[in-house]
Amino acid sequence: MSNFSISIDLLKIQGAFLRNLKGKTATKKCIIIPVEEHQGLYVGEKGCYLNLTAIEMREPKYRDTHCIKPNLPKDEREAMTEEEQRALPILGGLHAIEAHQQEVGGQVDASQIIDTSEDDLPF
Question: Which tens digits make up the pLDDT trace of 97-106?
């Protein structure tokens, strides 16, 4: 069994930016990602999803063996020119990790999704 390390630069997502947001008790640096404007990002019933594809590189760079790009639905991808497809941003990289390293990760459950009906922040 293989484990992989995946690194994603969220600021490479189209329209993403950092902003300090002030809540009731604190100001925190947050990343803002426009959902409707990003290819590969959609809001479903149980969360907000970013579909990604790991593409194996012919000539691996650094330790990464794959580059990570947005995964688009077939109809969207086929409607794009070859140039537009190549212009999709590389969001990160992937490489196999050694068995002795600990895996870090977690899942977001529905309770972690922020209710946008409120005007205040959860911090």
Answer: 876 645 555 5
Q: Return d(Cα 89, Cα 73) in angstroms, integer.
A: 16
pTM, to two decimals? 0.66
Residue 90 gets which letter from DSSP? P
Q: In terms of Cα–Cα distance, which of 94, 80, 93, 91 is closest to 13?
A: 91
Per-residue pLDDT reduced to its tens digit, 23-64: 999 999 999 998 876 667 888 899 998 889 899 999 887 889
Q: Which residues pair with 31 in a beta bridge?
A: 18
Antiparallel, parallel or unpaired: β 92-97 and 64-70: antiparallel
Distance separating alpha carbons of residues 51 and 43, to the nearest angstrom: 11
* Burial of 13 from C-beta contacts in 10 A (0-12 / 13-18 / 19+): buried
Angle CA 78–38–44, to nearest 5: 95
CA distances from 65 to 50, 54, 94, 103 (A): 21, 9, 6, 18
